Amino acid sequence: MTPREKPRIVTEHPDFYIVAKPALWLTHPVRARVDVPDVLTFLQRETGELAVSPPHRLDRETSGAQVFSRDTDSARRFFTLFKEHLVGKSYLAIVHGSPEWDETTLDAPLGFVGLTGSNRIQIRQGVVPDGKPAATEFKVVGRKPGFTLLHAFPRSGRLHQIRAHLHHLGLPMVGDKIYGRDPDVFLAFMQTGQTSDLTRRLLLPRQALHAHSLSFGWDGGQVRVEVPLAGDLAAFWEGLPQG
Fold first, then answer.
1. Would you say 207 and 193 are in contact if contact means Cβ atoms under 8 Å apart?
2. Of 38, 59, 102, 184, which is the active-site residue?
């Protein structure tokens, strides 16, 4: 999978853009990843607006809805909205397994699990007693043998929150190199990059996580934008047997 798909503006407001971010695009330039395209640079070139900036970010492998402010005033307003948790976000995720519930909320603190004999990934998060408060609501959207399509509603904004909570629930995300079923995949990826063998082991070349919607108050009204499930994830889901 290569980042050939380009970002697409789905909402143009005088104060902001909402963009459909493709998978494998960074949110903004990273010096160590000069070979990877980023949405900020793309938007600046496409619109000619150098003041465009992202008040939040999505992981490189995550697709979906992302907002970009268009000037310094709107950037400050979004900073406050995100800081005070006034932006509603929902995600779609494809996971291994089938939960017994149709809806559940996991309220469990998250933090670094630390390097141990069973964990060789420094950035891995997990449910730990002294972690920061984290809550995620999950709802089942669809079920197929061995797999479930979930809606996830994070009520806090912790690092890797949805992925770490799904791992804790025994529902690892398809394609997830850090919290998936195979603990050795991430280290292999860091050494070799994405290979056909890794894609075969993961079933997808990227994690099956998609930012589905954003909602927030603006100028006395309510903004809500949905971005349909990305094409690669929709094709994977539709290609699974019904059972």
1. no
2. 59
